[in-house]
Amino acid sequence: MDVFQTTITAAELLYEFINSYAEYSHDAKSLAHRFDWDIRVLRSASTYFEQKTASNIGRLSTADKELLQASVAYFGELMAHISRKRNKIQAKGWLGTQWNRALWIHYKKELKDLEAELFEWTSRFDLRLVAVPPELGAVIQLDDPEANSAPRLAMKRRIKRYLAQPDSEKAKISEELYIPDPGNAVKFTSSIASQRMTATYNSKTSIVEYKPYAPSLLSDQEKLKETTDTVKELAGALSVVDPTLTALLPCSGYFHSADPNNPRFALIYSPPYDIAQSNPPTLKDLLNAKDRKGNRRTAAHPLDQRLNLARRLASAVYFYHSVGWVHKTIRSDNILMLEPTREDPLSLFPYTLGSSYLVNFASARADSGNTDLSLEERENEWFLNVYRHPARQGANISARFTMAHDAYSLGVVLLEIGTWRPLERSETEIKGKTPEEVRKVLLGLVDGTAIQMGSKYKELVKWCLELEDSNLGMSIYAEQVLERLESLVM
Fold this sequence. Notes:
Layout: H1 2-20, H2 26-55, H3 62-91, H4 101-129, H5 134-139, H6 151-164, H7 167-177, H8 182-185, E1 186-188, E2 196-201, E3 204-212, H9 221-238, E4 251-257, E5 264-269, H10 283-288, H11 303-322, E6 325-326, E7 335-338, E8 355-358, E9 365-366, H12 382-385, H13 403-419, H14 427-430, H15 435-445, H16 447-453, H17 455-465, H18 474-489
């Protein structure tokens, strides 16, 4: 169809252009592979709709019209960008140029900048595809081996396959992850005992996070089994996560402590590099950080790092939802800020923000699963409730959790990032208020984000905080949150 064909033609020309100088650049070679995959996806979608139109006397059925609209929602921005970029390259006279090493050296810097921009856009396409409608997934044959050209998509497929396996197969994976003797296998390196500590496991730097549960479950075998199965499934699903692609850490093992005074599970995460901190800080810690004189630290990091932090978190939520799970406890104290081991103090906080990772899956579950209050945080402290959607507070805590509730919680975190100010500093305005009154207070603070982050950032935070208690479509989330953040980061 025309909506795809114009882009396919432009993409093919770009592919030939990129591939023509791939021998001079490893990045260009990788990008050419990604473009080849993107073109195949667009061709498959276009062919599908052409065949459907031809078989229905030149018309699409209502269902196929809806699918076409969904397709354009996922592909539209990429298609527009490719066409614009093709026109720009054509205007420079680069298309059709016979490249050689001399030309490559002459235009190297300009071409590398172009590579980075195009790679960013193909990565965005890759992220969009993880939430593609099932019908469209079948159309473009996402199970094809070539799908490894889209890393996030391949990772989603691995998680989906795990979740779809029969219990017997999941049990085998759980057995491999289970640590029967954590006392000998896990060596803690944190100086302070807490819910989240660093350790060495399998000779690698790891992070151990505890998941406590109600002691009453120890005498309720049925409930304990349900809780155990949830933890096992979560550990298995997280074991295939790639931390270089999304703000989630892979799980390398788990264990169980049946201490009657403090029963709990523990998940072990594997960071992508050795980390500098024995007790890694959270985003909340950075927001509250003080200097040697006890004064609150002034943010000294570049603005683009803060915008990238916001985008990473939004992408993690998007990916997590795409595999059918809800997190339920998105807060700034559940976002780890990891820094690699470095000697240069200017490469550490407060001058840089490090890498962010969403953790604490104590209450996480499949979107289709039942709410389990044995792992649900039932504390009624205002500084926890402030992150929860008004429909999920107080007497409503057992109400069904939706993806919109996670998006609301993300909005509260984005508010803190945008003002670089922890919500504890607004205690007098928030504490003791009703859930809807708290929401009004937060919306009143949103204007403060425009000063540091701009009006577009302010509007997306406002959009998150105004979400009502309803299911949220992935394409809407992508449009209202991801695309706005991506446009700011570019």
